[in-house]
Amino acid sequence: MKYAPALASAVKVVAGSASLDLGKQLAAELKVPIVDLAFEKHPGGFPDGERYVRLLGSVEGEHVLLVQTTWPDTKIVELFLLQDALAEHGARKVTLVIPYFGYGRQDKKFEAGEPISARALARRLQIHADAVVTVSVHNPEVLSYFDVPAREVSGMPALARFLQGAAVDLVLAPDENAERFAREVGGALGAEWDLLEKRRIDSFTVELTPKAMDVKGRSVAIVDDVISTGVTIASAAKMLREQGARRIVAACVHGVFAANALTRLQACDEVVATDTLLSSATRVSVAPEVASALR
Ligand code: R5P
Question: Which residues touch 201 (CB under 8 Å, ≥6 apart)?
């Protein structure tokens, strides 16, 4: 379904606990108020671990930008609660901003018996959402799983903004899926770009097709949508190092950094991520990109 511009009138931002910082930045960019929330009935939510949310300001009759990353799972539950609270308290319209669309990478059935997880989430998230905006999805086709207007905002300009000062000679996509990301960042930096071919064996094992690249003594940025285990980036970095690359920066929009990824990523000189997920590698915000898509 075609995406219609979201911001026609005054709005308020409501940000879940996975996206509080980005929600504040977004509100500042758009010059709109953010509604205070409580996330704890008792420290940690409820004693049994269930989530708790409470709106501390009015949303009656408002167009709300509801900002929440869908990772990890508890944040999805929290998002469902926030959607219910907005409906219950009379929000006129809800534009759901999903900075990192967790489960987006299971965009099809890879093996018999599996669900299409991205679709399962989309179908449920669109309840109490009039439109959806998400950032750098693994496969833009997942947007078609929403029946409400849904669009992708690229986080690559934010990465390019950071890399601007890093004197990058080459931007490298570690696999075919990241080709569009390397092209975009390379174009923004006015730098060459290239890509590798990857075959994933399992969550912790990938095979890269050997490729000779002109990287001796040069500075290379490897760009991707997500870094999860870091295996993809570490394998690409190893190949670059063997070919004499002088400096390697790993740049992703979504820094999941699962299963000791940051240790694996010591193969790189620097690791950079945006604020769709907060981590020690967060260096730049996608708020300007999201705000201009909403204006
Ligand atoms: C896959 O194509 C994605 O774009 C990323 O390359 C992948 O999810 C990274 O995962 P990991 O860090 O576990 O290798």
Answer: 207
User: Can you tell me whether residue 75 is helix, strand or coil?
Assistant: helix
CA of 39 to the centre of ligand 1 (A): 31
Q: What is the pTM of this model?
A: 0.95
Residues counted in the chain = 295
Per-residue pLDDT of the chain (295 residues; tens, 9 = 90+): 545 445 545 799 999 999 999 999 999 999 999 999 999 988 877 888 899 999 999 999 999 999 999 999 999 999 999 999 999 999 999 999 999 999 999 999 999 999 999 999 999 999 999 999 999 999 999 999 999 999 999 999 999 999 998 999 999 999 999 999 999 999 999 999 999 999 999 999 999 999 999 999 999 999 999 999 999 999 999 999 999 999 999 999 999 999 999 999 999 999 999 999 999 999 999 999 999 999 9
Q: Is 252 in the pocket of ligand 1 (CB under 6 A)?
A: no
How far is Cα 117 from Cα 72, in angstroms, rounded to an integer?
14
* Residue 224 parent element (H or E): strand 219-227
- Residue 93 annotated to the active site: no
